[in-house]
Fold this sequence. Notes:
55% helix
Amino acid sequence: xxxxxxxxxxxxxxxSDCHIYDQKRLRTASVRRQPLDYxxxxxxxxxxxxKFRIHNFYPxxxxxxxxxxxxxxxYSKVEGLFGFxxxxxxxxxxxxxxxxxxxxxxxxxDLEEDLFTELILF
Length: 122
């Protein structure tokens, strides 16, 4: 997704009919924060597009990926616990008993041990 910046940028330009980035005045510190003997390197000059990509696009995409991975993990846990309901008709009694025991152990205060017998009726 991070590699698609140019595509998203051109799509955004077409949608907004705006082809230049908004310029903002940057404040500079009036006090020297570096020691006098500190070696100065030349500052990087970035285009407006690069600044937007680095400071806005990449953080949003990275957060999106992290959030999606968290959702995938959560749904995987739910599927691991309740996924057997989709194939309940095809499972043997021993498999149903194993899955029911897992669910009862997870929700021990809410479910009773006889869940297995109720599932067999389906």
